[in-house]
Specification:
five-stranded mixed β-sheet, 39% strand, 522 residues, hydrolase activity, 7 helices, disordered N terminus, Tachylectin-2, Chain A
Length: 522
């Protein structure tokens, strides 16, 4: 392979070689386990207590004691190609004959709606609008990450999913940015690739749009090796939405504001780790702190890659737990290479062009290396922190499916409690933890055909969840995706949630169904 894989699922592979190796070593064999509860620790006690988001430096932890509940929930006797995880936390199986929402125009993956400060989803002039990462379909699907651009789609609002075309009825509107615009912010313009990664979009008075995204420059040699670390930055570009009888178009998006770069203090940077994660801005307002706009984003804890930085607090075992590990044991397993966190920032002006970092609100040190696309979701007075992670990015000794992980607390900065039996799992792909992972381009023979069926989930109002299709099928018969998956629905109640199998057809709603719930009015 001449060009190293970079990006979400691909970077996950590169960043977790030790984990992948341990899983591949067990390919074709089952993992012995005793009855659930006998070989696993108790989860860490979390209070859900809220702290001041700006005055406190409290950071919640998803501990190893918490994350080991994932394997405790898995059925050790589940046979080859079946799901070993509880159905209440498992996305229904997506059919392999899925339609393509772009009609073969572009690959589509991470997507997000047009929202306000409360995450309400807007239609404008009778049209629903979404933004997506897209790439030319002449590229191999796994080559898309370094060529990603932000595109947009639109469709008529107010049409029930059952009455739309099977592919969701979207029209591809094209790219948001003209060539060269998003590269303006980089002083060093000798980049080999300049790309755009995920973010969020907010609508304001007069139809002004502020598009928050991750602006990225790669500096590679012809053989694909890096001549210096890649440079991801959290950025924003303003534009304006227009509609007519034919659809949606935009003006603006000609200037990019360079807002945040990983600081090396709270958020790992390229000097500390050339493979660091820093991306996926999601902005919102908090009713408990009126007049403030906050942002959550994906980061890594600011330590030098490979430093033995796991702590007792990261492990989180209760005193005297017979299944507890020691810090030395965890370091010997190589878990210090997985150091994910979720960052927080606050806007310094009303234009939302200037921000400053606050301490992270959540860490997964020695548990996983990626907590992607974080978002704050509010319901019944509770604050839910949702994020996504790959099976391949979990640290040695931790295992769980690809999908959505959730945590609940009483404020933005809380002692977040992992949902669902203390595990954090909210919506996983059907997966068999008794067998190796494989890769989206080469599934393990024994894995469930849905192990890679969906990723990059976004939780919408009413508990609806959208995602994109990666790979569906078995090693001897699989199909790659590059389009949006069926929408599913979660029933969320306190620290628990479950998949609503009465929604749609056996729990699967329409493909690419991202409905608006609010009509924009100037």
């Amino acid at each position: 392979m001449k060009t190293p894989l970079v990006g979400r699922a691909a970077t996950a592979v590169a960043l977790s070689l030790a984990t992948a190796a341990s899983l591949l070593a067990g390919a074709g064999t089952t993992t012995s386990a005793s009855a659930a509860g006998t070989d696993f620790p108790q989860p860490t006690v979390h209070t859900q207590k809220a702290y001041d988001p700006e005055k406190s430096d409290f950071t919640a932890r998803w501990t190893r004691a918490d994350a080991r509940q994932l394997k405790a929930m898995s059925d050790p006797g589940a046979p080859s190609r079946t799901n070993s995880m509880p159905s209440a936390y498992t996305m229904p199986e997506v059919p392999q004959d899925f339609p393509d929402m772009s009609n073969d125009k572009v690959w589509v993956w991470d997507s997000w709606p047009l929202t306000d400060e409360k995450a309400n989803q807007y239609s404008v002039g009778g049209w629903e609008v979404i933004f997506s990462l897209v790439a030319d379909r002449n590229l191999g699907f796994d080559d898309r990450h370094v060529y990603a651009k932000i595109g947009y789609f639109f469709r008529k609002a107010g049409v029930p999913a059952a009455e739309r075309p099977r592919n969701g009825g979207w029209t591809y509107g094209g790219l948001v940015f003209d060539d060269g615009v998003s590269g303006q912010i980089f002083d060093d313009k000798s980049f080999s690739h300049q790309t755009q990664w995920s973010g969020s979009a907010r609508i304001f008075k007069g139809g002004e749009i502020k598009l928050f995204f991750t602006d990225v420059a790669f500096y590679r040699n012809k053989d694909g090796s890096d001549r210096k670390p890649y440079d991801p930055r959290i950025a924003m570009s303003p534009g304006k939405i227009h509609t007519n009888k034919n659809g949606v178009f935009f003006t603006g998006f000609s200037k990019v504001h360079d807002m945040l770069q990983a600081d090396g203090k709270w958020y790992q940077n390229g000097e500390q780790n050339p493979y660091f994660n820093f991306r996926d801005p999601f902005t919102f307002e908090d009713p408990a702190h009126p007049g403030k706009t906050y942002m959550v984003f994906e980061g890594n804890s600011a330590v030098t890659r490979g430093a033995k930085a796991c702590t007792e607090a990261d492990l989180g075992y209760r005193p005297g737990d017979p299944q507890a590990e020691t810090v030395d044991e965890v370091h010997e397993k190589g878990a210090m290479y997985q150091m994910a966190n979720i960052g927080l920032a606050v806007a310094d002006n009303k234009e939302l062009t200037k921000w400053h970092f606050l301490p992270p609100i959540h860490s997964s040190n020695c548990v996983t290396d990626q907590t992607e696309r974080p978002q704050i979701y509010m319901k019944d007075g509770k604050y839910y922190l949702f994020t996504i992670s790959h099976r391949s990015t979990f640290a040695s000794g931790i295992d769980g499916p690809e999908g959505v992980y959730g945590f609940v607390g009483d404020g933005i900065r809380s002692d977040y409690q992992p949902m669902n039996q203390g595990s954090g799992l909210v919506l996983g792909n059907p997966t068999n933890l008794n067998f190796a992972t494989g890769f989206p381009f080469d599934p393990d023979y024994n894995q469930h055909p849905g192990q890679f069926q969906a990723y990059s989930h976004y939780v919408m109002p009413g508990g609806l969840v959208q995602s994109f299709i990666d790979t569906i099928g078995t090693k001897d018969d699989f199909r790659r995706g590059g389009t949006l998956a069926p929408t599913v629905k979660l029933d969320i109640d306190g620290s628990s949630s479950s998949v609503d199998y009465s929604y749609g057809d056996g729990g699967l709603g329409g493909f690419a169904d991202i409905p608006s719930d609010t009509e924009f009015k100037n």
